[in-house]
Design brief:
mainly beta, Immunoglobulin-like, 1 helix
Length: 129
């Protein structure tokens, strides 16, 4: 009976890991509401797919902006700072990109939105495993 209970617990744990929710964060940038989604939670070393959804003050999707993502890790003893930049492509109503985290640890991510001649930025921190 204990063995059956253990098997059931392991199955529930495995199913929970398979259906784990994406890393998701919503922030304001001026009049925009920006939703950033990373396909892995927590983000991992290597490639991570990112989607950025932008809504204006009226709640309408913004699909005519230039969106770039700057990400990096601060300098540590024996290691210089790492800084990367990637542009996004519009897929449907969201902007998509791939971030390649070269090592685990704390990373800062800045989503820069240029629309109507103005640039707004959203910053977030992720802990890469």
């Amino acid at each position: 009976m204990k063995r059956l209970a253990l098997i059931i617990c392991v199955l529930f744990l495995a199913v929970g890991l398979v259906y784990a929710k994406d890393y998701e964060m919503t922030k304001k940038a001026g009049d925009y509401t920006v939703q950033v989604t990373i396909d892995k939670n927590p983000p991992v070393t290597g490639n991570n797919n990112v989607a950025v959804g932008i809504k204006d003050g009226a709640g309408k999707d913004v699909t005519d902006a230039a969106v770039a993502i700057d990400y990096g890790m601060p300098a540590m003893p024996g290691m210089p700072a790492m800084n990367y930049k990637t542009d996004t492509t519009l897929k449907g109503k969201r902007y998509a990109a791939t971030l390649n985290f070269s090592m685990s640890g704390p990373w800062s991510v800045a989503v820069k939105i240029t629309h109507g001649g103005k640039t707004q930025s959203v910053k977030l921190n992720v802990d890469v495993k």
